[in-house]
Amino acid sequence: MNDNLTIHPDGRTTLRMQRRLPHPPAKVWRAITQPEHLAHWFPANITIDGDRITYGFGPQGHITELDPPHVFAHTWGDDELRWELHPDGDGSILTLTHTFTDLHGAASFAAGWHTCIQALLAHLDERPAHHPASTARLHEDYIAILGLDPATTAHGDTDGDTDGDTVRLERQLTRHADHVWRVLDGHHATPGQTPPAPFTPPGLQPGPVTRAESGKLLEYDIPGGTVRWELTEGTGHGARLIITCTGAAPTTLGAWRNHTAELASSLVD
């Protein structure tokens, strides 16, 4: 398995995944380009009409490169997919590159494509595919494999005063927002009271809750700043978590990173 990310200067991200398949390129080519074969493993119902592709839902795409049996490249809305085949003994090397704008969705994309390629291999082997009940653990593994760090920090003033730092974390989760809210004990969040313990990492002194919207948002004061938790629509089947902590000391960055990692781990079945 050879999977990695490239972040481009324009803000787009490319996920590259490479697998050896014990089948010749001609056979694999049919499986990755013909709708009757794609139906067994691709995550959408593909229809190809000339260079136009429809996926059964969401935006359409078009074929951007076709070099049988080596390269099949196409768009899916704003995303770009490129499938490359090279012979390797009696088998093939399949390389998928997926270019997209949502960096923090990369683990969801990787987990999804890994599962699809496993189904592709089963189809090539002419055996039933195993469809996992959940890809949550695989998603969390890909967070580590791809080196996705959810945390950033920036100075909040021109003097570089550390008391003015802003810590921001963005992380794709594997469960829907209502479930995450219950895990955070969010139903006990009350304006004017201190937030439930799961909303605060060790070492941070919380003040009163200033705003709470069930399953969506919680804000509270801290000495010299504020903390804001947001749960929004994410990539895949879970919510996107965004935490913004203003007026934070640089030492809180690691605490927030660990806190969100522990939360994400607790959501895995």
Describe the structure.
- By secondary structure, this protein is an alpha+beta fold.
- It folds into two domains: 2-145, START domain (Alpha-D-Glucose-1,6-Bisphosphate, Chain A, domain 4); 151-266, Alpha-D-Glucose-1,6-Bisphosphate, Chain A, domain 4 (2-Layer Sandwich).
- The chain is 24% helix and 36% strand.
- It contains six helices and 14 strands.
- The protein has helices at 25-33, 35-38, 106-125, 136-145, 177-183, 252-266, and strands spanning 2-7, 13-21, 47-49, 52-54, 61-67, 71-76, 79-88, 91-100, 151-154, 165-172, 209-213, 217-222, 225-233, 239-248.
- An eight-stranded antiparallel sheet has the order 1-2-8-7-6-5-4-3, covered by helices on one side. It has a six-stranded antiparallel sheet with strand order 9-10-14-13-12-11, with helices on one face.
- β3 (47-49) and β4 form a beta hairpin.
- The longest helix has 20 residues, at 106-125.
- It starts with a strand and ends with a helix.
- Residues 23-124 form the Activator of Hsp90 ATPase homologue 1/2-like C-terminal domain.
- Residues 186-211 are annotated as: Disordered.
In short:
This protein is 24% helix and 36% strand.
Could you list some keywords that capture this structure?
269 residues, alpha+beta, 2 domains, six-stranded antiparallel sheet
Strand order of the largest sheet: 1-2-8-7-6-5-4-3
CATH top level of the largest domain is Alpha Beta
**How big a fraction of the residues is strand?**
35-45%
In N-to-C order, the SSE pattern is EEHHEEEEEEHHEEHEEEEH
CATH H level, superfamily name of the largest domain: START domain
CATH architecture of the largest domain: 2-Layer Sandwich
Structural class: alpha+beta
User: How many strands, what sense, and barrel or not for the largest sheet?
Assistant: 8 strands, antiparallel
What spatial form do the alpha-carbon principal axes imply? elongated
Number of domains: 2
Average pLDDT: 93
Radius of gyration: 22 Å
Biased composition (Pro residues): 193-205
Pfam families: AHSA1 (PF08327)
Protein name: Activator of Hsp90 ATPase homologue 1/2-like C-terminal domain-containing protein
Region (Disordered): 186-211
